[in-house]
Amino acid sequence: MAVTRRAETMEQNRARLISAARKAFAEHGFASVSMDELTASIGLTRGALYHNFGDKKGLLAAVVAQVDGEMAQRAKAAAATATDDWEKLLAEGVAYIRMALDPEVRRIVLLDGPAFLGDPAHWPSQNSCQEATRQTVVRLIEKGVFKAVDADAAAYLLNSAALNSALWIAASADPQRALPRIIEAFTQLASGLRENTIQALMGDIAE
């Protein structure tokens, strides 16, 4: 029982630290947040931080993973009404890009995350997203919707395009103006993988 209670306490402390850090990082930015003040605000010590996350960057990584995971779920929800795999793929990508306008996402995932944790393409949350995209690409190739391209390469390209589009918006001086421009470019890029793209364009020209 004592071991169970200890494990429960550790899990609760971990959740409290992530919740407090998420709020502080979103409001003040990672670099400006004092770990002494953060831990004291929830009645814990720096020892609890080190035990659960190793250091301040480890705590940021946990917060980024939580927010980025929620972004993936929000993107899936936005594509729930899509009629086929292609529309779903496109809708999820566009939804992810739109989230760059969310102040919390912008600060934690798109600005501080890359600045202090390195290339987002190597984050575990991005790896899981890429695998989900790869599976969709495989289905689209099998159905003849996509050209016969390498599924791993295509998934990496699409995920990178969505991620870097969001990063571009986050760094923009005018995110609202940048958003429709990058969504149009992303849509055109993704559409280039479709088997019927050339035929459709030829049809438009003929008309």
Automatic annotation (TrEMBL):
The keyword Cell membrane does not apply. Residues 11-71 form the HTH tetR-type domain. Pfam families: TetR_C_41, TetR_N. Residues 34-53 bind DNA. GO terms for molecular function: DNA-binding transcription factor activity; transcription cis-regulatory region binding. InterPro entries: Homeodomain-like_sf, HTH-type_TetR-like_transc_reg, HTH_TetR, Rv0078-like_C. The keyword DNA-binding applies. Gene3D superfamilies: Tetracycline Repressor, domain 2. Keywords: DNA-binding, Plasmid. It comes from the Bacteria. PANTHER family: HTH-TYPE TRANSCRIPTIONAL REGULATOR RUTR (PTHR30055), HTH-TYPE TRANSCRIPTIONAL REGULATOR UIDR (PTHR30055:SF223). This is TetR/AcrR family transcriptional regulator.
